[in-house]
Amino acid sequence: MNWDDIRIFLAVARSGQILGAARRLGLNHTTVARRLTALETALSTTLLTRRTNGSTLTQAGEEFLLAAERMEAEMLAARSQVGNADIAVSGTVRIGAPDGFGVNFLAPRLAR
Length: 112
Description:
Arc Repressor Mutant, subunit A, mainly alpha, DNA-binding
């Protein structure tokens, strides 16, 4: 099972449409459909009922959605904890500007 496939499933479940999820994710709709099929194959179950006017979750899809949302929440929490541990902002900022703009506009605002 691939995390990217789960992300795609979440997007489709939330939007109700493969095309809407594809637009949100910046993917081709055929790629989204193919990845959903791969996820369903990996799970040996059907998660979505596909129709021309959108997709609806099956009972298995509803159950998997709850698990996928928990996985997503844990992933975001882990990224937040680990990602912020060693971040410290430091350094010099250089601003290039024409003399009139720098003296009359920037300098008074940077002094605050």
